[in-house]
Specification:
The complex is a heterotrimer of chains A (257), B (303) and C (383). Helices cover 33% and strands 25% of the residues of chain A. Chain A is built from 9 helices and 12 strands. Chain B has one domain. Chain B contains 12 helices and 2 strands; from the N terminus they run H-H-H-H-E-E-H-H-H-H-H-H-H-H. The longest helix of chain B has 32 residues. Chain B is globular and about 60 Å long. Chain C is built from 15 helices and 6 strands. Chain C is globular. The two termini of chain C are 13 Å apart. Classes of the chains: A alpha/beta (257), B mainly alpha (303), C mainly alpha (383). The interface between B and C is large, with 40 and 43 residues.
Chain lengths: 257, 303, 383
């Protein structure tokens, strides 16, 4: 599956070559989602390599969240297919996709507020065959919540809750992590903590698709960026090229009808 | 007990009356609960006892000498006042806690029915049914139960409909249900609104009790659960819309109950009603009006 | 956990390992103090028959039989988040099933196997109802309503089975009059232990039988609730949709919880019928259907031992008040229920636990046992 056959999507030449050593982890083929008369995602061929850190950006209403929901299985596509790690996911239910190795963290924190941090991590961890105590301890260290392990998750700050949620997603040992606006509404300090966490996990080989608006954050973490506009892939390439691209700036300012 | 094959014209009329009686019973019993559940998301399991309070108020004033219509007014008033007290002391703490409201109001129901027993004894003398009876072939039906009550039910529903759609109260009430935050921002005293709505629900329950008092025979303190179950089931099967939900549920359940009671007996009628309710809830988890609303929504999206 | 080189240390570590599966964040009472009190209570229960006359002993046994019903709702509601008003349906179905079996097979073997058969039938019924609801996508308050209505359907049905045509084998269902069964005999063939009747010995034996079963069941539930399955239950209770996103098959887990609850209620029903050799449709009525909710709400819906305690206390209070001619029992129970929901919605047990801990802290730390003992708020190493 090539990244896209659409000639209007300009591949910045420097990163076009995906060498034979890298495998495609996620690939969508002509993925389309229509809601009545509205086409939210339009014939998207979206590819992510193993271990890649991709950011997905675009103006509001571009279809970013919808694309994520199609990948996780919350929405069924109107047309098109989804492939992950060699299997076709298009008709699989959400929990089968999770078993296949996709983990997702949604925008708003969705943790178990009445349970402790430790218990929160246990819930997804139990689903795996991984050794509980060691993984728990390591995750707590990665998300930097060791001291708060036995506190109620509801008592944590917003940033801590987001880290907890990312931690919960990682306990499933996913190959691909989808993050939907992980630093929305966070302070600079909290944003940096999340960036560090993502780097740590990425260094361990985890692939990411991160939807974000915060361009500083995107710059901080990403290798390649995909720009979505009106349901289609508009541009793809390294962050510097995308940032300096006039057409991209225009769609954000709304001059592209 | 009529058997199925010979279905004469008289049978059809009796069946129709049976339906009307069940319909009126269910609708009147349910609408007070529907108002409270639909508007405030509180399930008042003491609802049966509220209806009973209305019946007691009516019966006691009747036996004290008041003419029946006046006695009914007394019944309604007593229940309304009682409802206001309950709201201020118990219910207002439970507005976002649906399951807790069920449990707490059940506690109230237990205490209340026992208090009625302690204070008023094991039964109160019956009020005779007014309006006499009419002969339909070999059968005779009470005019009050077969005709007046269904009529009164429709009048009440019509009145409530007008109240909710044409008055300021109704508009404010709807705003409060849909979005209390915004309603407050618009200057609506939501606290007052909840109290008023609960009072209205209580008044309606009291009215149901008052109207049904003559049909109960001797009035006993454990009659509350008789009303509660049918009301409860109808409210949930009806769905979110108060008036239309109650009417449609009472229609469906009343028809089921009426048919089975006619062909078999009251046990069968009750069982059929309950079984139909189970399957209805399974098939239409948002109730009848909830399902209709979903259909409308889908049609809008496709447009 | 504090280790010591004193001889007590080894004992304590063995004790710790035995205790481990029974403890965790999901049960009240995870300290040594709790187990000491618990063992004390068990000892008291063993001595209890010496202190009271057979009539009182018989009544107490009945309360313990009802305790199974309370445990069933505690599991399903307190841990599973499923508020069911229909546990009495399984209680009653199993009770009637046992009665029918015991009448038709009036030997010790028949009755003993009848326990298994009756519990199986009640559990099967809960499985079917659970499947119908959870795999049909029924949720929250609608589950509550369907369970309540199911019990009421049974009530209406059984109430009209008075006629002589309502027989299964030689067992007449009896309608409102109820059904009388034989005195319960546990055993095989002619070597049975008789439990029923009004003479002291069988009553004593039955008391020990029920109490032993209850203690074993309680401990088994503690293990279940503190296991990873228990964690799953709690996760579903807290946020069902979120738990599904982790790949849990939520309808299946709910079905399992509900079925286990059904089995517990069924066992209670069998013990209840066997106790008085009698059962009537009143076990399906709304007043009885709501009783487990009363016991569990007051006792503490997440506390296994709390609900058993509340059941015994409330039923005992009702009986003693009724005995003195007072009609105030229900008023007190109703008022208590309102009070608990408004003031301490988690029930009485957590308050007692808090009081207990406060007391323990007041005691001078005279051994490393007190100081190093983790409270139930902290999690132990391998919960």
């Amino acid at each position: 599956m090539s990244s896209t056959g659409d000639p209007t999507v300009r591949e910045s030449p420097a990163v076009a070559a995906t060498g034979p050593a890298k495998d495609e982890l996620l690939a969508t083929d002509g993925l389309t989602k229509k809601f009545g008369g509205l086409t939210a995602v339009d014939t998207v061929d979206f590819t992510v390599e193993e271990g890649e850190l991709r950011c997905l950006i675009g103006p509001n209403g571009a279809g970013k969240s919808t694309l994520l929901e199609l990948i996780t299985g919350q929405l069924s596509p109107t047309e098109g297919n989804i492939y992950f790690d060699g299997i076709e996911l298009t008709d699989r239910k959400s929990h089968e996709r999770i078993d296949a190795g996709i983990s997702v963290k949604f925008q708003s924190p969705h943790i178990y507020e009445a349970l402790t941090v430790r218990q929160n991590l246990k819930v997804p961890l139990q689903r795996t065959d991984r050794e509980t105590e060691t993984v728990l301890q390591r995750t707590l260290e990665q998300i930097d919540l060791v001291e708060q392990a036995d506190e109620s998750a509801g008592d944590l700050s917003h940033g801590q809750q987001q880290r907890l949620e990312i931690g919960m997603a990682t306990t499933l040992d996913p190959k691909l992590m989808l993050l939907d606006e992980p630093v929305a509404g966070m302070s600079i300090e909290e944003t940096n903590e999340i960036a560090d966490l993502i780097h740590t996990l990425h260094d361990d080989g985890m692939a990411f698709v991160v939807v974000e608006h915060d361009m500083d954050f995107v710059r901080e973490i990403s290798e390649r960026v995909t720009v979505l506009n009106q349901g289609e892939i508009f541009r793809q390439g390294p962050i510097d090229e995308i940032e300096n691209d006039d057409a991209v700036r225009r769609i954000y300012l709304g001059e592209n009808a | 007990m009529a058997s199925i094959p010979l279905f004469s014209g008289y049978d059809a009329v009796i069946l129709a009356f049976q339906f009307l009686e069940s319909f009126a019973f269910i609708a009147l019993a349910a609408v007070g609960l529907a108002i409270i559940f639909g508007m405030m998301g509180v399930i008042n399991l003491a609802h049966g006892e509220f209806i009973l309070v209305g019946a007691y108020g009516t019966a006691l004033s009747f036996h004290a000498g008041l003419p029946l219509p006046l006695a009914m007014v007394v019944g309604v008033t007593v229940t309304t006042i009682f409802g206001i007290i309950v709201e201020r002391t118990i219910v207002k703490h439970l507005y976002d806690r649906l399951l807790d409201s069920m449990v707490a109001t059940w506690g109230l129901a237990l205490a209340l029915s026992q208090l009625l027993l302690i204070v008023f004894g094991s039964s109160i003398n019956s009020i005779g049914m007014p309006m006499g009876s009419v002969s339909v072939g070999p059968f005779s039906r009470s005019i009050y139960q077969s005709a007046f009550l269904p009529f009164a039910t429709l009048v009440l529903m019509g009145g409530l409909y007008v109240l909710f759609t044409r008055t300021t109260f109704g508009v404010k009430a709807k705003a409060t249900i849909e979005d209390p935050e915004t309603a407050r921002a618009m200057g609506v005293d939501t606290d007052r609104m909840y109290l008023a709505t609960f009072a209205l629900g209580s008044a309606t329950a009291g009215l149901a009790g008052a109207l049904f008092a003559p049909t109960l025979g001797s009035i006993q303190p454990d009659h509350g659960s008789l009303f509660l179950v049918e009301a409860f089931v109808a409210v949930v099967v009806g769905g979110p819309s108060v008036i239309l939900g109650t009417l449609s549920a009472a229609g469906v359940l009343g028809l089921t109950s009426g048919i089975f009671t006619f062909f078999y007996d009251t046990f069968a009628g009750r069982m059929a009603l309950l079984v139909v309710a189970i399957f209805a809830l399974r098939a239409l988890p948002d109730g009848i009006t909830g399902y209709v609303e979903d259909l409308r929504q889908k049609r809008r999206e496709q447009a | 956990m504090s280790q010591s080189t004193k001889p007590f240390g080894t004992l304590r570590s063995i004790g710790g390992r035995i205790r481990a599966p029974f403890e965790g964040p999901n049960t009240t009472g995870n300290s040594t103090a709790f187990w000491v009190v618990f063992l004390g209570a068990v000892g008291f229960l063993m001595m209890y028959p010496q202190m009271v006359n057979p009539l009182v002993l018989g009544d107490t046994t009945r309360y313990f039989a009802l305790g199974f019903l309370a445990l069933s709702l505690c599991l399903v509601w307190g841990f599973g988040g499923i508020l069911s008003f229909g546990q009495v349906a399984f209680f009653g179905v199993a009770g009637y099933a046992w009665g029918i079996i015991s009448i038709n097979f009036a030997s010790a073997t028949g009755m003993t196997l009848g326990i298994v058969g009756a519990v199986f039938i009640g559990t099967l019924f809960s499985f079917i109802l659970g499947y119908f609801m959870f795999y049909g996508g029924v949720r929250d308050v609608y589950v509550t309503i369907i369970t309540l209505v199911s019990a009421l359907v049974l009530h209406t049905f059984m109430a009209q089975t008075a006629g002589s045509q309502w027989v299964i084998g030689s067992a007449r269902l009896g309608g409102f009059n109820g059904m009388h069964s034989e005195h319960f005999e546990l055993g095989i063939g002619s070597t049975g232990i008789v439990f029923g009747g009004t003479s002291p010995d069988p009553i004593l034996r039955y008391y020990y039988f029920v109490v032993a079963l209850l203690i074993v069941t309680y401990l088994a539930l503690r293990v279940l609730v503190n296991s990873s399955f228990g964690m799953t239950m709690v996760a579903i209770r807290e946020d069902e949709d979120r738990t599904a996103t982790f790949g849990y098959n939520v309808p299946f887990v709910k079905l399992v919880i509900f079925t286990i609850g059904g089995a517990l209620a069924s066992l209670g029903g069998v013990l209840y019928t066997a106790w008085g050799s009698y059962i009537s449709p009143s076990v399906f009525a709304i007043t009885f259907a709501a009783l487990p909710v009363v016991w569990v709400s007051i006792g503490g819906r997440e506390s296994l031992i709390g609900v058993v305690g509340a059941t015994v206390a409330i039923e005992w209070m009702q009986d003693s008040l009724a005995g003195t001619g007072s009609e105030w029992a229900m008023v007190i129970v109703g008022g208590l229920l309102v009070f608990v929901i408004l003031v301490m919605p988690a029930g009485v047990a957590p308050q007692i636990e808090r009081a207990g801990k406060w007391l323990l802290e007041k005691l001078p730390p005279h051994s490393d046992q007190q100081a190093g003992e983790p409270t139930s708020k902290q999690t132990r190493g391998d919960d």
